[in-house]
Amino acid sequence: MEEKRFKKNDEGFVCKNCGKEVLPLGYTSRNHCPFCLCSLHVDINPGDRANDCGGILRPIQTLPDSKRGYIIIHRCDKCGATVRNRAAHEAKIQPDDNDLLIKLTAGIGR
After folding, report:
1. In DSSP terms, which residues pair with 84 in a beta bridge?
2. Burial, 77: exposed, middle or buried (Cβ in 10 Å; 0-12, 13-18, 19+)?
3. What is the C-alpha separation between 110 and 20, in angstroms, rounded?
4. 3-class SS at 73?
5. Residue 65 phi/psi, 5° resolution?
């Protein structure tokens, strides 16, 4: 039997970039800060927390997706890896900053 690559890990945290408290989404894994859109490079597969890098993943671009809303492209400050994450701009609790998502889509704020 094949093991699932996605592990739900919907925990709150304090953002290592901006210091704000981030609450759980309640329906899927919260993997970035809704205020500054930064994340930590801690997963190999979503939710597994198996990556030892631990660098800050900074948003460098967002891509509109007709089925998923926005996809955030992050680059790690520590190792340079790029990672794609689905935005939570329609979340009921602490939705992602829509203005920041739009600026990144337009190429502003990189």
Report:
1. 73
2. middle
3. 21
4. strand
5. -135, 125
